[in-house]
Automatic annotation (TrEMBL):
Organism: Blautia obeum
Record keywords, A-Z: Transferase
Protein name in the entry: Glycosyltransferase family 2 protein
Source superkingdom: Bacteria
GO molecular function: hexosyltransferase activity
Residues in Glycosyltransferase 2-like domain copies: 13-165
Pfam family, one: Glycos_transf_2
Length: 517
């Protein structure tokens, strides 16, 4: 039977597990009290004190006394966040249920925005999610916020938009009927949110998004939030794989007969946090446990399709190729050199890896001195490619080509590692270019020798100290004047002749006009 608004006392029930959050709890509660949907007529808060040993318990009781009709307090022995949330679910009288953590908060219009969307969307949509933004120690959005870039509320169909995954229960708002017969897995200390949501989505792979809402996630300065400490807990490595990763893969097979792309994408996203570990803490797992964990990790990877690995957001090219080389073993790819574009890559039977030249050169400084300029930059090198024997600049002026060797050194600490294995390293290099080599228009290409192959880098990034910008292209040192521009594959120098001055002035005017069109 379909239930209506009149079947519920409140529009929203906010279930909050409370454990030793004395410094933050009042702020979290106040963010619900000040919701513009109207707290007393629309919202109830269920505070589940999970055996707190600080004043959290007393704070819960104080707020309950202030709002006896809207705030319920349940005191229980410590059993973990999942246990506390499960206890709270049975006391919910709201049409929609959310699970805000006790040290986080909601922006003031979030509940009204979510309610407005629920009021107009398909009744079969099980939940709605809002973007996560960090505050306190960090101040930016969650890496999965790309799904909200449309800026308008809408339905996500995971069959077609399988990368728009949802893993957080805290930033989601569930229909009461969806949650009332479900519970969080109390055997999990991590991924219990993701498991509950996956269970729902396997039955209905659609949900709503409301970009105007905001869930504010506190990353504590004291480093004791779940996000900060998870990598130092055995459960994050072993239990999460056993009871979430393989459960999701096996449950998909059981219910559907296959593993949908959105399930694979979600699992791969979660696995990447483990594959980004440079080194596993020595005091977390025994040697046997670590061996077992790595075996499970690689077995899970084998159940993910190649395209799902490749399509992961924020996946570095060296880690991507490393993961694919594991999946393809014993085929580790054939090194191929393309002389026409001066580039190299690993070729597999059905795809090519990222190439050497695709790693961007980061331009750091450009210092104009009396007789020469000094350029400093750095670039990441994937260690599967032959180690560079030489870094150099290629100066092209008309039909003339000149070479300037660079001094360089490596920094392994800034490279990517997995389990102590160096996947990439950073090469810092310096070049000194005499002004005599820049007498005419000159294109400067950045190159290296890798094995016996010449590689020309294809892209650039400006560092904070690099002076060349579209608005700042004219440089003078004594009698030497240059116009410097950054092209797609080169740094270009042009002597400061009257013709060049007119040309760059016209270019500047064109940019100003384009900005105002």
């Amino acid at each position: 039977m379909n239930q209506t608004v009149s079947d519920y006392r409140f529009k929203f029930s906010v279930v909050t597990a409370v454990y030793n959050v004395e410094p933050y709890l009042a702020e979290a509660i106040e963010s619900i009290l000040t919701q513009d949907i109207g707290f007393e007529e629309s919202v109830e808060i269920i505070l589940v004190d999970d055996g707190s040993t600080d004043r959290s318990s007393a704070i819960c009781d104080e707020y309950q006394q202030k709002f006896p009709d809207n705030i319920k307090v349940i005191h229980k022995e410590n059993g973990g966040a999942a246990s506390a949330r499960n206890t709270g679910i049975s006391h919910c009288e709201g049409q929609y249920i959310s699970f805000m953590d006790a040290d986080d908060r909601l922006t003031s219009s979030t509940l009204s925005d979510v309610y407005g969307f629920f009021s107009t969307c398909d009744a079969n949509i099980p939940f709605v999610s809002v973007p996560i933004y960090f505050f306190e120690k960090r101040d930016f959005g969650h890496r999965l916020n790309y799904k909200y870039e449309c800026e308008s509320s809408r339905i996500i169909d995971l069959v077609h938009e399988y990368s728009f995954i949802q893993m957080s229960a805290s930033s989601a708002f569930f229909r009461h009927k969806i949650i009332q017969d479900r519970s969080f897995d109390t055997t999990l200390k991590y991924a219990e949110d993701a498991k509950l949501i996956m269970d729902i989505l396997l039955d209905c792979p659609r949900y709503g998004i409301v970009p105007s809402g905001r869930y504010m996630y506190r990353t504590r300065n004291t480093l004791d939030s779940a996000l900060n400490v998870s990598k130092h807990r055995k459960e994050w490595y072993i239990d999460s794989l056993k009871y979430y990763t393989f459960w999701a893969l096996d449950e998909s097979e059981r219910r559907l007969g296959y593993v949908p792309d959105f399930v694979q994408y979600t699992i791969m996203y979660d696995l990447l946090a483990r594959f980004r570990m440079k080194k596993f803490p020595d005091d977390v797992m025994t040697a046997h446990e670590k061996e077992s964990f790595l075996s499970m990790l690689f077995r899970a990877l084998q159940r993910i399709d190649d395209h799902i690995v490749i399509e992961q957001h924020n996946l570095s090219p060296e880690l991507c190729d490393y993961l694919l080389s594991i999946k393809k073993a014993p085929d580790s790819g054939t090194l191929v050199y393309d002389a026409d574009v001066e580039n190299q890559y690993f070729h597999y039977s059905d795809f090519n890896s990222c190439s050497s030249a695709s790693y961007p050169v980061f331009l750091e400084t450009l210092d104009f001195q009396e007789n020469a300029l000094t350029l400093q930059a750095h670039v990441k090198i994937y260690t599967r490619f032959p180690y560079p024997s030489k870094m150099f600049l290629r100066l092209i002026s008309g039909s003339q080509t000149q070479i300037i060797d660079c001094s360089f050194y490596e920094n392994r600490d800034e490279g990517a590692l997995f389990n102590g294995q160096q996947l990439s390293l950073t090469l810092y290099f310096t070049a000194i270019i005499p002004y005599d080599m820049l007498k005419s228009s000159t294109k400067v290409e950045f190159c290296m020798i890798s094995g016996s192959n010449t590689i020309k880098f294809h892209s650039f990034r400006r560092g904070n100290e690099f002076p060349v910008t579209p608005e700042n292209s004219r440089f003078k040192s004594g009698k030497h004047v240059f116009y410097v521009t950054l092209a797609s594959q080169s740094l270009n120098f042009e002597p400061g002749t009257p013709v060049a001055r007119l040309k760059h002035k016209a270019m500047h005017c064109a940019r100003v006009i384009r900005r105002h069109i």
